[in-house]
Amino acid sequence: MLLELDIRNFALIDHVHLELGGGLHVLTGETGAGKSILIDAIGALVGGKMDAGDIRTGADRASIEGIFLLPPAPPDPPPGSLWQLLREHELLDDDAGDTLILRRELVRGGRTVVRVNGRAVPLSVVQQIGQALIDIHGQSGHLTLLRPEKQLDLLDTYGKLLPLRRKVAALVDEYHAVRRELQLLQRDEREIARRIDLLQFQVEEIDAAALKAGEDEALLRERTVLQNAERILRLAEQAYEALAGTDEAPGVIDLAGQACMALAELVRYDPLLQDEAGRLGELAALADDIAAALRRYRDAIELDPQRLEEVEQRLDVIASLKRKYGDSIEEILRYREEAAQELDRLLHAEERSGELAAREQELLEHVGRAAAELSAARRAAAERLAAEALAELQSLGMPGVRFEVQVTRVEDPAGVPVDGRRYAFDRTGIDRVTFLVSPNPGEPLKPVARIASGGETARIMLALKSALAAADETPTLIFDEIDVGVGGRSGRVIGEKLWNLSANRQVLCITHLPQVACFGDVHWYIEKRVERRDGTERTVTTVKRLSEAERLDELSQMLGATGEAARQSGAELLEEAVRWKDGRKQARSA
């Protein structure tokens, strides 16, 4: 959910900082106070439209920052999910824990910066993340429910069809893998013959080299020694003579021996140096061991130009193979194995092609049966969902509305066989799902995405969200203008449904009806006022969290009356809403 929202220099907002939480948040205020500005700011935060006109007059930049509490991470996030997106773009921050920070900043002149957990990202990434975090329903917003692929996902989740859908996807994946291999084997005969010749040459070339893992590193070290043999021999001799000595001068070993004898005699008179005498003896023995090792190393050094030439030639062979097949001997050998496997397939192409062709047809039949089973289940789920959504819509003051979940197929000669026909298919099956609605009698059914009225769209979304409450996992829902053209009785129904939705998610709603506002767990008041700063009058929009007393005053004003009677009516609305919510809470816990 959205925990905190900070807006600076956006439209009429100078600075607003909101600390939010779960439940139902209602936002009220006079017409033109700037309620929709707040929603526009949230929309911009998650990737919506934002341009220089949104920067407050007199400011050089506008910024919006939101801190979100993340839902628990599933062990295996599905493709397109919030966690999969965050991992794919390396946006998870261990220091942030279970929170996600989005920030968008627009500088006058047009430059915009978008950050996720402090990292700059393309706007398209934030738009994908935003679709998983927030749904905005009203005249503007990204409305994930309007996307056809989302409608298919929601229907499958609603109908508990995801296991069957995964079965179809697995069969389709296997089918495409078999088809790709078959197409590879069915290429032009001349091309196959050329490929066989190339693979045979490559395998034989690598085999002839008889490569060994780590061989190149050993050869490079040996080449360095052979190239510098004279210098190495001279240095080894110098080190050995310094330790063992020469005819002209004693070495470290002789001098250490003399020191050992002197110190041993000294210890006879003063045992205090006993430890030093022992350590000096160890030093003399160590010098003798090192001298012996240097002697053996020196004697093994050979000036061997022929061996150097052999090493150079071997390294050239390895370098040539690296240029062709990989950056290391391990990669070359791995390439050899892959080439050998492909060569074997091509040499047995005719036999393998027959097997693959049979398997392709077999899988096509399997996909057709599984897709048909999934399609039948979808149609049954679509009828149930349509009936639930229709009932929700009618209860929201749309008595003449019609709603349908359309499940269609597209015929394709190359598709899967179902009931004597062939249909186009993909990993989701053979169906295309569209939510259709007709808000008013006499109007044809149209896709939900084509409904023009902001209020109607918001109510349709509320009805769908209510019907899909268990299937839709979007954690934050925002409704704007949901009560346009709605009376008090229908407003109460809207309030009840909004509060029900907030049981396991965060809901924000801009409303003009006290019958809706009274169901809020938190009440925010948005006000536009003129302030005088530095001798200049400026219009600013402010947002305030109302106390219980202030909330009662606001509900009374929303009722359009004044005096004690209005306060009494407002208090009755609140009391009725509290009783209703308490009853729902008890029913849930029962």
Textual characterization of the structure:
By secondary structure, the chain is of the alpha+beta class. It contains 18 helices and 17 strands. 31% of the residues are buried. A 6-stranded antiparallel beta sheet has the order 2-1-4-5-6-7, covered by helices on one side. Strand 6 (112-116) and strand 7 (119-120) form a beta hairpin.
What characteristics describe this protein?
single chain, 590 residues, alpha+beta, 6-stranded antiparallel sheet, 6-stranded mixed sheet, 18 helices
Share in β-strands: 15-25%
State the total count of DSSP E strands.
17
Give the spatial strand order of the biggest sheet: 2-1-4-5-6-7
Distance between the termini: 26 Å
How many helical elements?
18
What is the CA-based Rg, rounded? Answer: 39 Å
Q: Tell me the helix content.
A: 40-55%
Low-confidence stretches: none
How would a textbook summarize the main sheet?
Answer: 6 strands, antiparallel
Shape: flat
Protein topology:
Elements: E1 2-10, E2 13-19, E3 23-28, H1 35-45, E4 61-69, H2 82-88, E5 99-107, E6 112-116, E7 119-120, H3 123-133, E8 134-137, H4 148-158, H5 162-185, H6 189-209, H7 215-227, H8 229-244, H9 252-269, H10 274-300, H11 305-325, H12 329-347, H13 349-395, E9 402-408, E10 411-418, E11 421-423, E12 432-438, E13 446-447, H14 454-467, E14 476-479, H15 488-501, E15 506-510, H16 514-517, E16 522-533, E17 536-545, H17 548-558, H18 563-589
Parallel strand pairs: 3-15, 3-16, 8-14, 14-15
Antiparallel strand pairs: 1-2, 1-4, 4-5, 5-6, 6-7, 9-12, 10-11, 12-13, 16-17
Helix pairs in contact: 5-13, 6-12, 7-11, 8-10, 9-10, 11-12, 13-14, 14-15, 17-18
